[in-house]
Structure formats: structure tokens, C-alpha cells
Amino acid sequence: MTILEAMDDTPYRVASDVMSGPEPEILADIHLRGVAASIWNRTCEPAFVDWIDGLPVESLPELRTTVPVHLAEAAAIAACEQAKIPSSSERDILTGDIAALAMMLSKTLDVRQMRIRLDVSDEMMCPKFHMDNVPARLLCTYRGPGTDYVPQEDLSEPSRIKSVKRGAVALFRGSAWSGEERTGLLHRSPAVDESVGARLLLVIDPID
């Protein structure tokens, strides 16, 4: 944690620590002092990976919606139907996981409404390191490489850049996070992996 001096000479703290662990409860650490991101390190089942990687780009589900948490799974199912993805156990895993992550975010941040996106891209969606203008943002990459992140103070040191694993769940504070701490952790889309093809990224933003 770094102490900086504000414009009015009042000291304020910069949160740039990252907490990670193998259990979903780690996401609640986003509320800890000095923590800018919490990451649930998990891996996708091989059968799911084979299935999602085998889908043609035009069959990857895309979604842009704002819903109460209890409708997250219905929205994900509708996106899969729109993409004409046949019913299967793997599709159920995807839609069920989106619903579960929406519920986790709801409980972690005490919100009931959320903005849910499924982004499909074979290009770097956000190539520059940045901070989102939201209180917090949950990211999970189902296909392709995970999100890169780095403390703002280490931006000029490439060796300090780290990446969220594919399938892992990352909860980042945004610039609108409430409290006295300023968020000092930046993130970006990873470089395109042509061997994998299009990337499928889940984004969930809380809505007060």
C-alpha cells in the first residue's frame, strides 16, 4: 500500500494489492483495506474447454443486458438460443456458471441488479491498461487467454504484468469504488492468441 499526497495536502491511500485463492470466498476480500482485486483461481473442466473451443466463432453467445440477479441464467440461456447452440451438458455448465457468478457478485457487493455482457472478439478489446469507471467489475474468460493486470506504479515494468488464468474469476475495483482509498490497479485485454481464435469474456457490473 502506498501513501500519496492529494492536491489539498490530505493523505490518501492507494489500493493495489491482489488477493487470490482456490476458494470462491476469496472474492469477499475485495472489501479489505488496500485490496484492488480478488481472484478465485479455478480451472475449467477439460470437456467444457474442448466444447467451448470447438464452437465456431459465429456460434459463440453474445449478450448485453441489465437484469436482477435471479434472471441472469435465463438471460444466458436466451443468448445461447440466439446463437443456435444446441442443448448439452456443457451449455448448461456455461449458463449455470454465469448465474452462479452473478449470485456471488450480488452477495459480495450487496446488489440485486447487474449489467451482464458476453463479449466475443478476435482482437484486443481494450489493448491499453485502464481502470473501469464502475464501482467494481467481475471478469471471467471462458475461451482464450485471461485478463492482464499491473499496479499503476509498475506500468513501465513489463516484468510486473500478470495475467488472470482462463476460467478464473477476477473481481476488480473500479474508479467509482466507494471509500477513501483510490484504486491503483490497471488491467487490459491480453494479446490475441491466433491458435485459439475468438475470445469469450464474461463481464458483470453491479448496479446500485
From TrEMBL:
<dbReference type="Pfam" id="PF08856">
    <property type="entry name" value="DUF1826"/>
</dbReference>
<dbReference type="InterPro" id="IPR014955">
    <property type="entry name" value="DUF1826"/>
</dbReference>
<protein>
    <submittedName>
        <fullName>DUF1826 domain-containing protein</fullName>
    </submittedName>
</protein>
